[in-house]
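Troubleshooting: if your tokenizer reports a length mismatch, compare against these two reference records.
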Amino acid sequence: MKIEYDLTKEDYVEYNLHFISTSETMKKSLFIQRYIISLIFLVAPFLVVKITDAPLMYWIVVFIIVYVLWVAFYVRFLKRSVKKRIEKLVAEGKNTNIFGNHSLTLTEEGVVETSSLGEAKTNWSAVEKVYDTEKYLYIYISSINAYIIPVRAFKSLDEKNEFLRKINDGMDKANEK
């Protein structure tokens, strides 16, 4: 089975945001940054009260509000920040191998990707996992590398489901060996 699609910068940015939200390492880091480090906001009133004339209760209320806002909005801030950084990185150099026309063919042996740079083959045994999101399919071939397939590449939901079934069949056969 073969599909053809155009991979854009937006697709690449979305992949990186997906990676951040699904990677166990990134989830732990995000938890620490969001909750543990932000506990400093709850200790800060006791330090700030010593250098100001405002009462302790005032600073406790202020820093609790800051803590709640931090916890509530940190993920949005992080995603926006990561998106901007990735867009800058993409704009820095030549990325002809990432963007543009791609085709992905599922064979008995694995996945074959064809782009302007040539052909890349991945055996089914190297496919680690597949994520099916609302807008993308991600076929992970390592913990940080995946084939990015926009759902718009499929003519219908049936075609997408057939593609997923073939991927799962290939992975199952590889795991039986």
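Reference record two:
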Amino acid sequence: MPTNMIARECLTQWANTIKPKKFTIPDSYSVGPITNLTNLLNGVFKTKSPSEQSASNSIPQSSWFRGYHFIFSCQQNQQIGSDGYDNYQAPLGDNHHQLYLRRLWARGSIQFIQPPKINSALTCTEQVQKVKPYNDDVFVDIDRKFTSDEGELLLVESRTMLYTNQLYTSNKSPKLTENEPKVTVKISPIDLLKYSMLTYNLHRIHFDPKYAHSVENLPTLLVHGPFQVTLILYYFGLQYPDLIVQQLKYRTYEPFFVNDEAGISIVAKGSNEFQLTLFSAEQKIIYLQGTLKCK
């Protein structure tokens, strides 16, 4: 049997095993992590005082609508893969053999329902919804639902991971934007390390440049997908503090590398609907783009 057919058979077996499973990750919506992430973001955006970051962004309840949920109910890191990330929802063969060398954050959506109470218990329930082979790669869709201790729904998230054995090569025809940045930022290696620590993330492409280059052929470290989402949501909160975010749908296009100067644009698309774009300030290459709906 050809190797690719064996791999597809292993993938099918894994999909049939993983999809019925539910993963429950308890946590508490505590002030400490919220404060640490706020300090990190204020450093990135160079806000110097609470008045500059707006009153609403400084309130822990409002932080829930700015991408802060990513730092709660994180993976437990009990099945570490060769790239450092947890393999608990990664395609595996017999004897937990890793079928793919690399994993990438592809796209996602977030429905913001209501914020948790400060220092209250919350639970995230995760389930793999779809496993979609694409040539020699595979997309894995994961649904996540945050609920309060009383069972109230707080947030619903969908994320899609791309698993591949192809090494990184630069895209010769990347998607570009004509937008001008409202603000520019640079993410340093220290910023990446801080975010990795806040999210209990051991993925080596975010903190180990030798691994990133020698194993995955990346030129340098990558900015985390959820960090990018948080950047655009947090900046939107700075610009529109009175709007309440309801839903974000986004996808990634090109990798956002450490120390690159990135721009963020916000373009109104209708009544309380906005296009948010994170892109290279110099080359106008889009890193991540999403549609945000508010009320």
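Descriptive notes for reference record two:
- Residues 3-294 form a domain with the Thiol Ester Dehydrase; Chain A fold (CATH 3.10.129.10).
- The beta strands are 23-28, 102-112, 121-134, 137-148, 153-164, 183-186, 245-252, 261-270, 273-280, 286-294.
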